[in-house]
Amino acid sequence: MAKNMNNHLENLQKDIFLKNDGYGVPAFDRMLNPLYRGALAGPDGYARVTGPCGDTMEIFLRFDHDRINEASFETDGCGSSALCGSFAAEMALGKTPDELLGVTGDAILEKMGGAPEKEQHCAHLAGETLQEALSSYMINNVPPNEK
Description:
By secondary structure, this protein is α+β, with helices and mostly antiparallel strands. It contains six helices and three strands; from the N terminus they run ααβββαααα. Helix content is 51%, strand content 16%. The protein has a three-stranded antiparallel β-sheet with strand order 1-2-3, with helices on one face.
């Protein structure tokens, strides 16, 4: 009986949150179980970007054979920034540099299932930071004869 009550309350909380805040189901589920937070020591690609709202996002990338095999983020921002950083890191995993170009703020919002309009800038901050981390990787890995 208690388990059924807990499930009912969790579903009710999810319904209220989704109706009132504008986040999609994937985003809500991630809020309950955040992933990929924390710095990677010695990343191959790294960026730190401060958005117009004042939130700062850091993205860490580690490559193996020209594919991202580890990605993580840090932020000093709000819950939405953390949520978007988590999705950005997840979306980077397994991608080549060319494929990573498609992970933009809009792509992050789509993967999240949406976000309230006032929070959408966080996805764009995460996307911009991810692209800057890719840029740092590319600059540091240009073959010597191409510099």
